[in-house]
Design a protein that fits this description.
Aspartate Aminotransferase, domain 1, Aspartate Aminotransferase, domain 2, four-stranded mixed beta sheet, 13 strands, 39% helix, 15% strand, binds pyridoxal-5'-phosphate
Length: 380
């Protein structure tokens, strides 16, 4: 029997989960433009502009700022494999799923992860971090998640970095969900290594991970005793392709390392243009505004927020599922009858909460109203 295959036409969904978020139509258009060579001078110019736009969104002058050709998890891995060597001690703050992945990365690099645990739904406790730093004066880095997508908690990145600098250690920050949704100042806060993703508040297609390394981080990488165990994520090799910036900068020859996902880079460039045009402060204000209208709509339906107001993320709203309501059934109906995706709880929160994303393009008054009215219909 011969099977017949045909093109895949995705349903048109409204994406209000923990990512991917709705992709801007202009970004999808950019993605569909003709592919050119990945060392074509025009493409190299585009790479340089993407680097500049990423410096803008990260608020940094770091020359080593570029997208890794793989999703957020690869950005995470690139930071750890380049900075952590066997025997290194890293303090990892965990108050959700993603801190656990940082721990896993440290361990796989042969490092020692010293955990600072806080309850899921609560922010990282600065006093505990201080005590841990005091008890381990030889730590190399402090690692934490800025916006914990599994709970909707914003950790105080500025204060955590300040603390790390008091103890003269590197800072490693997961900004996958915060970039483009929450205030983030890489240089001012003295962040040494940071990674993000394209499918959350940048509203680009999934599959790229913007990263940035400070000069201090680059020094640490240069002083490594062991070779980076990952060939693909070795920043020294990647710089040979993406350009080293600074004095060696523009004129430096680009060497083939891997083939950049050319069309995805067009898409990222377009999404960064949108963010640049709107302006960071306006973008953050829009995320705050839509969060507040979602909150008032959900509260009218009797849904309660789990996370306290002063550290609640506007782009990821975690609400308790009311007693007697079937989690999976509600999400299935939202998807099948309303084409609306919202997120389930993870880990210990599975079945207890929903996570409603208002990220990037998805953070709109229209989506807020649609989500509230769809939920109202389903919960009726
Ligand atoms: C989504 C996410 C990641 C992983 O990104 P992928 O693109 O799925 O690999 C890492 N950290 C946080 C905080 C996230 O929300």
């Amino acid at each position: 029997m011969s099977q017949s295959f045909s093109s895949f036409i995705p349903p048109s969904r409204v994406l209000m989960g923990p990512g991917p978020s709705d992709v801007y139509p202009q970004v999808l258009e950019a993605l569909a433009r003709p592919t050119i060579g990945h060392l074509d001078p025009k493409f190299v110019d585009l790479m340089d502009e993407v680097k500049q736009l990423l410096q803008f969104v990260f608020q940094t002058n770091n020359t080593l700022t570029m997208p890794i050709s793989a999703p957020g998890s690869a950005g995470m891995e690139s930071v750890f494999v380049n900075l952590v060597e066997p025997g290194d001690k890293v303090i990892v703050c965990q108050n959700g799923v993603f801190g656990g992945r940082m721990q896993e990365n440290v361990l796989r690099c042969g490092g020692q992860a010293i955990m600072v645990q806080d309850k899921w739904g609560e922010p990282t406790d600065l006093n505990k971090v201080r005590e841990t730093l005091q008890a381990n004066l030889d730590v190399k880095a402090l690692a934490f998640v800025h916006a914990e997508t599994s709970t909707g908690v914003l950790n105080d990145a500025k204060a955590l970095c300040q603390l790390a600098k008091e103890f003269d250690c590197l800072t490693i920050v997961d900004a996958v969900t915060s970039l483009g949704g929450s205030e983030l100042k890489v240089d001012e806060w003295q962040i040494d290594a940071i990674y993000s993703g394209t499918q959350k508040c940048l509203s680009c297609v999934p599959g790229l991970s913007p990263v940035s390394f400070s000069d201090r981080a680059i020094e640490v990488i240069k002083q490594r005793k062991h070779r980076v165990q990952s060939w693909f994520l070795d920043m020294d090799l990647i710089m040979g392709y993406w350009g080293r910036g600074g004095k060696e900068g523009k004129s430096s020859k680009r060497a083939y390392h891997h083939t950049a996902p050319v069309n995805s880079i067009y898409a990222l460039h377009e999404s960064l243009l949108i963010l640049h045009k709107e302006g960071l402060q306006n973008t953050h204000a829009r995320h705050d505004r839509n969060h507040l209208s979602l909150k008032s709509g959900l509260e009218k339906l009797g849904l309660e927020f789990v996370v306290q107001k002063n550290y609640r993320l506007p782009q990821l709203n975690m609400v308790r599922i009311p007693d007697g309501v079937n989690d999976a059934e509600v999400r299935d109906r939202l998807l099948n009858e309303f084409n609306l995706e919202i997120g389930a709880g993870l880990g210990e929160l599975a079945g207890k909460v929903w996570r409603i994303g208002l990220m990037g393009c998805s953070s709109s008054r229209k989506n807020v109203d649609y989500c509230v009215s769809s939920l109202e219909a389903v919960l009726d």
